[in-house]
Write a structure and sequence with these properties.
- The chain is mainly alpha-helical.
- It has one domain.
- Helix content is 46%, strand content 8%.
- The strands form 2 sheets. Strands 1-2 form a two-stranded antiparallel ribbon. A two-stranded parallel ribbon has the order 3-4.
- A hairpin with a 5-residue loop joins strand 1 and strand 2.
- The longest helix has 29 residues.
- The two termini are 32 Å apart.
């Protein structure tokens, strides 16, 4: 799980877990749901893997709209849903760019080294990206 700011800079990266795990389950295990429900008011623009976290976090997690019709949806509904999905993805594109910056690092794309150390590698790369983004930000140099 990766958290970025509105500019796409990596702020936090969770430790990796062995095996497969759903995004929403991982968020619950890390205590993100409780933190968002009790913590400061922030808006998290998430993908469809976090669908269902809006209610327990008082609407702080925003996901793409859920499909209400499985079959034979009216034309107006499909057009409206398409506009909503496009608006959501337009807001989320910077997050995706931040995640792409992580994935561009060779040590993560090739999975060099032992699997036991992949979590440390991800954390190190996220730290380097965060540090380099802070150095490039002209407002912070004042």
């Amino acid at each position: 799980m990766v958290v970025t700011d509105s500019e796409g800079r990596v702020l936090w990266c969770s430790p990796t877990e062995p095996g497969r795990c759903a995004d929403i389950t991982h968020a619950r295990q890390l205590g993100l749901v409780k933190l968002l429900a009790d913590g400061p008011v922030v808006e998290i623009v998430a993908d469809a893997g976090y669908e269902g976290l809006g209610a327990p976090t008082a609407g702080r997690v925003v996901t793409p709209p859920h499909r209400k019709f499985k079959k034979d949806a009216p034309d107006w509904y499909e057009e409206m849903r398409e506009r909503q999905c496009k608006a959501h993805s337009s807001r989320r594109i910077r997050v995706e760019h931040g995640i792409a910056n992580l994935k561009n690092w060779r040590s993560l794309t090739r999975r060099l080294g032992r699997r036991a150390h992949i979590s440390d590698t991800v954390q190190a790369v996220a730290g380097l990206l965060s540090h380099s983004a802070a150095d490039l930000n002209p407002r912070r140099r004042r």
